[in-house]
Amino acid sequence: MIERNERLPLVALRGLTVIPGMLMHFDVSRKVSIEAINKAMDDDQRIILVAQRDPEVDEPKFEDLYSIGTLAEIKQVIKLPNDILRVVVTAKHRSRLLQLEEDKCYLGEVEHYIDSIDDISEFELNAMVRSIKDILEVYCVVNDKFDRTVAEQLLEEKDLSKLLDSLAANLPIPMEEKQMLLEEVNLLDRFDKLAVTLTNEIEITKYRKEFQQKVKSQVDKNQKEYLLREQLKVIREELGESNAESDADEFSKKIEELNASDEVKERLKKEVERFKNTSSNSSESAVIRGYIETLLALPWNKVSKDKTSVKNAKKVLNARHYGMEDVKDRILDFLAVRSLTGKGTSPIICLVGPPGTGKTSIARSVADALNKEYVRISLGGVRDEAEIRGHRKTYVGAMPGRIVTALKSAGVSNPLMLLDEIDKVSNDYKGDTFSALLEVLDGEQNKSFVDHYLELPVDLSEVFFVATANSLQTIPRPLLDRMEIIEVSSYTENEKLHIAKEHLLPKQIEKNGLKKDQLAIQPKAMTKIIQSYTREAGVRNLERTLSKICRKAARQLVEEEATAIKVTTKNLKEFLGKEKYSFEMKNKKDDIGLVRGLAWTSVGGDTLEIEVNVMPGKGGITLTGKLGDVMKESASIAMTYIRSIASDYDVDPQFFAKHDIHIHVPEGAVPKDGPSAGITMATAILSAVTKKKVRADVAMTGEVTLRGRVLPIGGLKEKLLAAKNAGIKLVLVPKQNEKDVEELSDEILDGIQVKFVSNMQQVLSDAIC
User: Fold this and answer.
1) Contact 399, 390 (CB under 8 A)
2) Is 548 an active-site residue?
3) pTM summary value
4) Active-site residue, from 676, 687, 717, 724
5) Which residues, 6+ apart, have CB-to-CB distance to 625 below 8 Å?
6) What is the pLDDT of residues 635-646, one digit of tens each?
7) Around Cβ 207, how many Cβ atoms within 10 Å?
8) Which entry of 133, 372, 528, 719 is annotated as an active-site residue?
9) Measuring CA to CA, how many Å separate 494 from each of 321, 500, 523, 728, 752?
């Protein structure tokens, strides 16, 4: 029977169908659903509940909803964290959705259906009630997991409508079938469909039980065979009989199942025959057994299926690593080629950069992005060639090399293999380890890499090799030629800030037993930590510093029973003590003989003040500041160049014969070397000689020649970051480094002007006041 039409608030449910008569609760988090609940509570607490056809749709339209839903009365609303409401409702009766209006909340125009028994005789009603109860009793016997209390309540029910709805609500059937029963507004049709559904469930349960019984019987049979084999093994041991023959049979069975080439299988069969004919008490038997087991354990032709989705790989890499665009681009290029061709030679990548910049961790992320098995080989301190190629079986304790062992550990022939610290490999009288790596990392040779222990060719062409190194200076040129070098440079302050906020801090909070809402570090405080408590190219010390803050916070939470801790610039000293580092800022005013240069260090860039003083003397030159040989040569070249152009600045020809010049680079205890301070020294000397001031907001870097040409330098990114931190406005850079500046991000260049110079005249005109 159809009642009047109404406009009521509506909530769309994901994967849930509400049957009339049910008392249930559900959670809502969507804004429109919360508004609908609030509107219903303001009116008469009635609401329409309709299931979505597709639970994944976030903003369902009229066509995304089933036509039949349920009118319910809200009994209770509980507010949960994260703007979630838990709603308790009592379902009343069926309603058909005629129209959906979308405003702040969903308003549905519906018509209600009330079950009517006017057209059904009392005899028919009793027959249908008894019939459905008979089927239910059979179902309860077949399915012993059905709730007995619920079954007893159902069997006591006499109202056909309530019986059908209660049974539909409690049956363990899919949501789609429950929706089908909900949409039957006619009581007779609903009875027919529920009877069929219940009968089908009885048959399905019977078949499932039969399958389970068959599986159990098979398991019992296997268990019995296992026990008999164990008893036979004990009997043979008591009789002193060898198990070699049974082990050989087991090996033969595994050889037939092995997915390998005929060459490998033939070799294995020969070794198994030798194993059969060798006494189990001899040492050779153990050697042969180990060799056979190693060959059987290797993944000869077993490969894992790579993920070729470029979008998925990009998403994984961006989520786990901030920056490192060159590495990400190379991986995505490889994936794009693999997705087009269906195959592709795995690249051999070498990530080079300072410690703590994420070289090792990104290799793991790449493996996850490609769905590859990940194995890591640490090469630091490896000096024996046999560590790579393996030992020959004639030696006692022979074993495969690390490459083959890693393949065995991976279980597939196409893993991502990380060769960590490849620049720290050393050599001794036992062989050249670098030369052993040549075959491994050569795409033309590693298709048939021969391990001394296996004495069989192993295909490494499908292995994705990733090597890491801090420096390329110790790696021989032939080995470098086989790898694609990708430089992982120092992180900028902004990159460190993002890494700390998005990765390091959440990791340390979890590691130290804290919750997310128990510790907060202000952005300004985080910047202070990066600038004043760590000085490094990577983020390893930054992570240790954040770990220290987390430990201090944990102690305060336990001792002082605090609920939440906030770290600011004001209370930062309480957690980390006094500041460890400070940036040397630019001079406040222009000065004579004082020029700021730029230097690259292992922990990033730094500014380098060069002071020159002139005094009466006999033409001597003094160099102080613990300078290296290259830097001393730069000072001599700069001095010669300035003397050659002194006349252009009206300097007395006898000036250099009657005066001594002292060149000093502060922080004398720190060794300094490199040619990039050449133009800085030349500018400082000219300033001191001519008594002309040098601009305080200028820094420079570049090598100088005797003729005043400015030559390119390295480490430009780190040097520009140091200049920016020191408040420098203008940086003079060699013209030939222009291509390096073009590759830098706007974040690094923001706030500073980079001017390219090709000779000293340009340098002096910009630096001298």
Assistant:
1) yes
2) no
3) 0.59
4) 676
5) 664, 665, 666, 667, 668, 672
6) 899 999 988 988
7) 9
8) 719
9) 14, 10, 11, 18, 16
